[in-house]
């Protein structure tokens, strides 16, 4: 049949205009706006309530306390503006605390990555006995951080501890692991690296096992040596995992409390007094209960972690091969 002149002008080829308009109104299912089912809100409500109570409310309370003075009983005594921040930033001990925090975090992250690679690379080879060694290396993951810190504290005891006993075999005297400032910082780093080594090795093993055999065989056919294949092929292919470990362990190092508090409590002097330990002492130590000053330090810690993570993602992510 031949359509009318209006149909020909409209380009519908004789099809009724009413039908075309109706078809355009019918959207595919994926483009239709989805309405949340009331039962979804019912089941999500407990999770939202827990999140608001234990995550966002303490954060908002911290911002509030940072602008408040504190009376002898630890209760807010009134609005003081930025006084808590000014007192903190003009105190030389605070900047020493920041320096100790960065040294501790940097040494801890480097130790976990380098020692983790030194363990994971040999274990990634298909040699006899490596399955058993993998299980042994992952033992630190099953040990409580508090238990590990207390055991290491016994091993660091001057004179009678395992470390001094071993150094005594070589004619060295007591090292003062927990009493000398330089050795105390090294001691807490050793324990933190030991506690976090299991998860680092586990992630690196998974990444190394995921490197395609075809790629390694092709590199070998091209005449590359073992170290060249490791440096130019394996390590670039596991950079996403290395990047993940750097980010997460940097945050963990900034927030570490248990190891330092149980081993040294921030001492001797201020040798291991990281920002988290300083927050704890300001809020609960020495009977001060200065929650306003502690909250200001907590906000600074939050800003440092956010800034450090942002810099790492901007700088290091460019070197990650996805």
Order of helices and strands: HHHEEHHHHHHHHHHHH
Beta strands, count: 2
Overall mean pLDDT stands at 86
Please, what is the oligomeric state? single chain
Strand order of the largest sheet: 1-2
Which range best describes the helical content: under 10%, 10-25%, 25-40%, 40-55%, 55-70% or over 70%?
55-70%
Task: From the alpha carbons, calculate the radius of gyration and give it in angstroms.
Answer: 30 Å
List low-pLDDT spans: 1-20
Work out the strand percent: under 5%
Gross geometry? globular
Helix count, DSSP H or I runs of 4 or more residues: 15
What does the model show?
- The chain crosses the membrane at residues 39-57, 94-120, 132-152, 183-208, 235-254, 291-311.
- It is built from 15 helices and 2 strands.
- It has 322 residues and is mainly alpha-helical.
- A two-stranded antiparallel sheet has the order 1-2.
- The longest helix is centred in the middle third of the chain and has 32 residues, at 92-123.
- The protein is globular.
- The model is unreliable at 1-20 (pLDDT under 50).
Task: Please summarize what this structure is.
This protein has 322 residues and is mainly alpha-helical. The protein has helices spanning 5-10, 17-25, 38-65, 83-89, 92-123, 130-137, 145-155, 162-169, 181-209, 213-221, 226-237, 239-255, 258-263, 275-284, 291-315, and strands at 68-70, 76-79.
């Amino acid at each position: 049949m031949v359509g009318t002149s209006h149909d020909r002008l409209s380009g519908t080829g004789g099809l009724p205009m009413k039908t075309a308009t109706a078809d355009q109104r019918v959207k595919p299912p994926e483009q239709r706006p989805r309405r949340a089912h009331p039962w979804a809100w019912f089941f999500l409500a407990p999770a939202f309530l827990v999140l608001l109570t234990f995550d966002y409310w303490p954060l908002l309370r911290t911002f509030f306390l940072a602008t408040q003075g504190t009376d002898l009983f630890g209760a807010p005594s009134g609005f003081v503006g930025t006084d808590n921040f000014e007192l903190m930033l003009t105190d030389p001990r605070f900047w020493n605390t920041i320096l100790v925090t960065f040294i501790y975090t940097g040494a801890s992250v480097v130790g976990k990555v380098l020692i983790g690679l030194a363990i994971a690379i040999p274990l990634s080879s298909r040699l006899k006995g490596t399955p058993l060694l993998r299980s042994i290396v992952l033992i630190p993951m099953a040990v409580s951080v508090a238990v590990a810190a207390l055991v290491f504290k016994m091993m660091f005891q001057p004179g009678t501890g395992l470390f001094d006993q071993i150094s005594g075999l070589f004619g060295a005297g007591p090292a003062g692991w927990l009493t000398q400032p330089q050795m105390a910082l090294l001691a807490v780093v050793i324990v933190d690296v030991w506690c976090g080594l299991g998860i680092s090795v586990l992630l690196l093993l998974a990444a190394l096992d995921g490197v395609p055999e075809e790629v390694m065989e092709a590199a070998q056919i091209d005449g590359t040596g073992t170290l060249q294949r490791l440096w130019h092929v394996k390590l670039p292919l596991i950079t996403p995992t290395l990047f993940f470990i750097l980010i997460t362990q940097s945050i963990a190092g900034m927030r570490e409390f248990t190891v330092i508090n149980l081993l040294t409590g921030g001492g001797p002097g201020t040798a291991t007094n990281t920002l988290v330990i300083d927050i704890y002492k300001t809020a609960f130590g020495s009977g001060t209960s200065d929650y306003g000053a502690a909250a200001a330090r907590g906000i600074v810690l939050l800003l440092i972690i956010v800034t450090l993570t942002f810099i790492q993602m901007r700088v290091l992510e460019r070197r990650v091969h996805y």
